[in-house]
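Translate sequence into structure tokens.
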Amino acid sequence: MGDETLIIRYLLLICALLLASAANADQVIELYRADALVKSQSEPQRAAAAKHALADTLVRVSGATNAVDNPIVRQALVRAQDFVYEYSYASTDEMLSTLDGEQVAASRLQFKFSAPLIEQLLRDANLTFWPSNRPTVLVWLVAGTATGRDVVSDLAAMTVLRDRAHERGLPLMIPLFDLEDHLAMPADALWQNQESQIREGSERYAADAIVVVRARELADAHWSADWQLLHVDGSPSFSSEGDSLEALLPAVIDNVADYFATRYAISPSEVGDANVVLQVNNVASFADYKKVEGYLAQLALVRRTQLASLNADGLTLKLFTEGDVARLQHTLALGGVLIPSSDSVSLPSNRYIVPGTVAAPLQYRLAR
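Result follows.
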């Protein structure tokens, strides 16, 4: 093999890695960071920006779009700066108008909010808490116009999706729209909701869920759209109308975020002495045990763990959780650290035995 061939292959590999990195960059979600544009670095401007940023953060962390309507939250917004532990300014190319109509250069005020204080506020307000371990969502968008059907990849549409996903804390994946996507995902397959082809063509992204949006340009220059979520727990459909394609897209993200928030967000009403018995069957060393313990300890759903037994086959833990067995199973499925054992697929012999109890522990194994 010649040097030129090696160089070409090396460059192609680098390009592939860069493209993969670009596709996955949207997955990074920082729940407790928010920013706002301000006209100056004055105290009144900072106080107003903190109020706006805190409201955005509470919606993102709770998963509830109506979080700011809560009376306790409204009181907290008045003292929004009490929840800030760090802030900084950055220059921008954007302009803002003053009260007298003058245009001034805007600064971006970036806030980092205290996670413990935010979570305590949600508890006080009896609002849900959606942990940062969230499903990654791949979005395909196909548009039908008078000239035909096309997969949409333009910057304006993708920016709207990204911005809304950031606001809701949804880890979004945008396709690369390269030759492989072009061959694997033609517009007609998306338009006809050919699920097997869509799933196969999306495998390279390893997303937890797929959203297929079909948008139609109507005769009066309005747009309508329907979209379907493909996920292991179900495939719900949604629809909306708008004055433009971009006007429809925030609703796509909102519907998907709302769907997952109802499944993964923790409700304060679930807090108590509820516990789940979990058996991990292939813990063969102390390092394995510490890995299981450390993983469970960082889950927001798990308040504490208690070792019940340890033997050659594995270990049994009692988990004190904020949520039921189904919520715990959903959370473990996202992490990929603990995998259901084949034994856990079948129901207990007595259907009245509750899964996750001493009589019927949840059966898992440590991923290798």
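Note: Residues 268-366 form one domain.
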